[in-house]
Specification:
alpha+beta; DNA-binding; archaeoglobus fulgidus dsm 4304 fold
Length: 225
Amino acid sequence: MEPKHSHPWKLNESEAIRLQKEWASKVIKEDQLNDVQYVAGVDVAYDPHSEKLCAAVVVLDTESLQIVETAIADDQGHFPYIPGLFSFREIPPITQALKKLNTTPDLIVCDGQGIAHPRRFGLASHLGVLFDVPTIGCGKTKLIGEAKEPGKTRGDYAPLVDDGEVIGNVLRTQDRVKPIYISIGHRISLSTACDWIIKLSPRYRLPETTRQVDQVVRRALAGLR
DNA sequence: GCGACAG
DNA sequence: ATCTTGTCGC
């Protein structure tokens, strides 16, 4: 698959913030997905000794939740980790990995936030707009926002609110297990996004997309040295 | 000024 | 993110 827009490679902090503000207006918060047969998970692993990163993408069949394709890409690190500008660090290698894919995913689940972001443009939204593909932000912790404790049952959720706006849901994917943070990435509604995360999490706290890609990217980085 | 801060 | 595998318990 190919990006829909050209993406600036070298940017400084203020230029990155300006791009976020500009592209945030392109985010579509309603359902705009076809039948979802293939769902992808993307993730990046870091080498603690060098500055290198490794990105991976796994494509799962939505019925069997089995892997149908994987792709990886290395990167030397073009942007530091700055909360709020996180996507500029991970998008370069993720883009390279997605370019290698033969299967076009109908939906992508990202590690991190979508619009649950200070400028409503986290990694999932960034990737979604860049490739014009439906994406979901699925974070293990929050960046911003306040929420009440959701019910203790799988499927229970509570709205994540910032500045009076609902920017996501704190979703319980398994009974009595710590909830995760779901937000719109691009071309999907919040409720549909949560439905998909529940479907993709039949047994564990995190969706299978995240678990599978986590394992793949980890092995790839290990084998890289 | 203080605390928070995706991976 | 990363340092880190097996193991105890429901």
